[in-house]
Each structure stands twice: as C-alpha cells, then as structure tokens.
Amino acid sequence: MASISFPSFSVLFSTFLFLFLHASIVAEGQVPVNETFKVVNEGEFGDYITEYDASYRLIEVDSLFAFPFRLCFYNTTPGEFVLGMRAGLPRDEDLMRWVWDANRNRPVKENATLSFGRDGNLVLAEADGTVAWQTNTANKGVTGIRMMRNGNLVLFDKNGKFVWQSFDHPVDTLLSGMSVRTKLISRTSDSDGRDGKYSLVVDPKGLNFYLNNAGKLVRYNGWGTEQDKTLVSMLFKTEPIDQDPKSAGWELLIEPFYKSTSPPAPQAPRRGLLQSFPIGSGNALILRKLNYNASITYLRLNSDGNVKAYTYFNDVPYLKWSETFAYFSDYYVRECGLPEKCGSLGLCQRGMCIACPTPKGLLGWSETCSPPALKPCSAKGNKVDYFKIDAAEHFLNQDSTGNGEGPTSLEACRDKCTKDCGCKAFVYKQDIKKCLRVPVLGTFIKDTNTSTAYIKYSL
C-alpha cells in the first residue's frame, strides 16, 4: 500500500502564519509586500513607433497593464521623461497613443523611480529622491493598484473602493467614461508636452474653448447648455445603440450634469454656434455614430485647439486607430473657425486658406503670412491706420449677432479700437451695426458682404 505523506508541522505553521499576516495587512489597510514595487527608468528604449515620435520604456509590472493600456516612461525631449499611459500594442502596426500623463509639466530624468510602497502611495521621484509627482494616498487605506480594462488606473482599499483613480485627473484627453469637471489643457506641441495655450473649460453655462492670449483667456467656441442651470461636469462616453455590447452600431456622446440638490438631470447641450451637423436628441449630445465597437475611444484637445476623437478597433489587421470625430471639421463646426487654421494671419474659406491680408490687398497665403508690425502702445496715443478685408469675419464671431458691441457706427467702432492697446483689429457688421474688437488676429473667415474686417497697423 502506498504511503501518504502529509506536510510537516513547520510547513503548515508557516503557511498559516503567511495567510494570517496577509489578512492582517489587508485588514489594517496596508499593501501586501508582494504587491509593492520600485521601477527604475533605465535601459533600452522600445523598438516601435509611438505618437509624437516619442521614445519609451515599458514599466514591467503586471498590475499596470490591461489590454490595450500600459504605463510607460516616455519622452519627446531627450532626458525629460513623463509617466504616461499608452493605448495600443506594438503588433498593431499603427501608432501607439498616449492617453494620460502624470507629470507633463515636471518631467523626470534618467534613473528616476516609480514606487508603490506598503503605505499605498504611488510616487514618481528623481534618482536623488526628489518627488516629482504622487497620488498623495499614503496611509489612506490603499491595499492594491490595478489598471482597469477601460484605461482607468486605480488604487483601491480592502473593500475594492477606489481611493484614487486616473479618471479623476484628466490632462488633455478623456477616455470613454471620463468626465471633465474643471478643464482640459492642450499640449504646447507634439514635441513639447507642457501646458499649451488652449483649454476646454467647464463653465457654469457650457463647455467652452479658450485661447490664452498673453495671459487673457479668449473664448473661441464651445457647447452651450441650459440657460437656467449650472453645469458642473461633462461626461464623455461611448455606447452601443441597442445596449448590446456586440452591436454593430455605437455612438460617441457627451453628457452634461448640472448643480442640483436632487440626482443630476442630464439635458441635451444646445447646437454649437457655428455648427452645421445635427446634434440629435435625448439627454446627451451625439458626436458621431459608428458601425463598429467604439468602447475604446478617446476625446482629446489637441495642440492646435481642435477637439478630436480616435477609436481603436481591434478586429482589423492594421491601422486600428481611426479619427472618428473632429469639432472643427466639414461635418460639425466649420474648420475656418479654428483660431490658427491659417496661422498667425490668413483668410479662410470652406476649410482652405485662400489669402494673406496685407495693406496692399489680398496676396497668396503661405505659412509665412504674418500680422503687420505695431509700435508699442503709449498713453499719448499712436498713429495707426487700418486696411480692410471685405466680406470677412473673425474666428471670434461665433454667432449671427457678431458677439460685439452695438448698435454703433463704423466710426465709433474704429475709434474704440484705436484707443484700445489690446485691439489688433475690429469687425463691423453693417446690417446690425455691431462692432467686435479683436485682441488676437489668426484666422479670418470669408463671409457675406454684411461683415467687414479692419486690421490695425502703425504709421
């Protein structure tokens, strides 16, 4: 008869002790030792091409990966690294995208560390220990960390409740299921990830686009909402049309939530002021309808001030990312409304830059078109004149009323701009006698003969 061996007392005792201690650690709200980590930013870079032509190093921690999302160190400037979330896989034969950044305004150097200790704090630090970014969750009951299937990086407690989540800290991008409660801020450029000059802001009356012009925010478009309600957040989401995840039809949506003592009552945002595409009906604004699964989609405020959505479709052999929405486009809001569509100065028509305005008239447009020089403004006044662009309006003309002062006369409008050091041009709408003073030039739009633009220059 074969003998049966039993574990020794010491093995049983050791196993019991380990389970007891593990349970005690979790009960006390500490991270188990085997789930802590410290990763050093060093070694070879990845071989595949990523968005922004960035170099990257994978963070090889199982809990920080969930198809197709992974944490990495990446950089667009040599020696300056951002802790970022990558979406997409190398085998896709397509650009892997960066959908969340932790420290884009405080990049770290070589040999920086990402550590997750027993106290439950996730910390990004320089090699000398200087903290560049952290979740500030030390001793708050965190027992684990995990990348969720929707791209949400979470730190959770013993009950599974999220103590911290990346979805609460968007930068310039919203993944499906993320809300913007304050604002998104664009990158400066593809090569410079620091805060740029464009922002998408939750205002009490809408989700609005702003351009930072020498420290002053200038609104250039946006989604309006109910006039008698206070907007507190805007949710971006994707849903199957018939509530079946396998459905061939999906919608990209944004849904507003308002300040209320009762549960939030979503209302459909109003039609965009330059919008040419119908928004649909219901509680959310429909950005686009797609014929395939759109669960992995992100909405981004790009460095040029446009908002675009990109959708990942895994069931194709290559080019898995597709642009599925653009705010300034031929199907939504006219492209000519984009502030820098035609650079620092240009005339736009039907999405194309057609002319460079000058005191000598309209010349052929090129990227070298530039505004006229203005002498420093003084209290004594400056000698200035204006050249005009017939049948034109400015990208700040967001609706048919001209967004200006009035009714007033052309002469009074001109005089106000002359005395205003911040005024670079003005647009006068002859039919309704309104005056719009323009603080930044950029793109002018070919329009009807009822609107004329006047650009200031020094004599």
Automatic annotation (TrEMBL):
**One GO cellular component term noted in the UniProt record for this chain:** plant-type cell wall
The protein's matches in InterPro entries, at most eight in alphabetical order, are given as: Bulb-type_lectin_dom, Bulb-type_lectin_dom_sf, Pan_app, SLSG/EP1
Natural source organism: Oldenlandia corymbosa var. corymbosa
Q: Which SUPFAM superfamilies match?
A: alpha-D-mannose-specific plant lectins
- Secretion signal, residue range per the UniProt entry: 1-29
The record's listing under Gene3D superfamilies reads: Bulb-type lectin domain (2.90.10.10)
Could you list this entry's UniProt keywords, alphabetically sorted: Glycoprotein, Signal
Quote any Pfam family the record assigns: B_lectin
Q: Which residues form the Bulb-type lectin domain?
A: 49-168
Official protein name in the record: OLC1v1023239C1
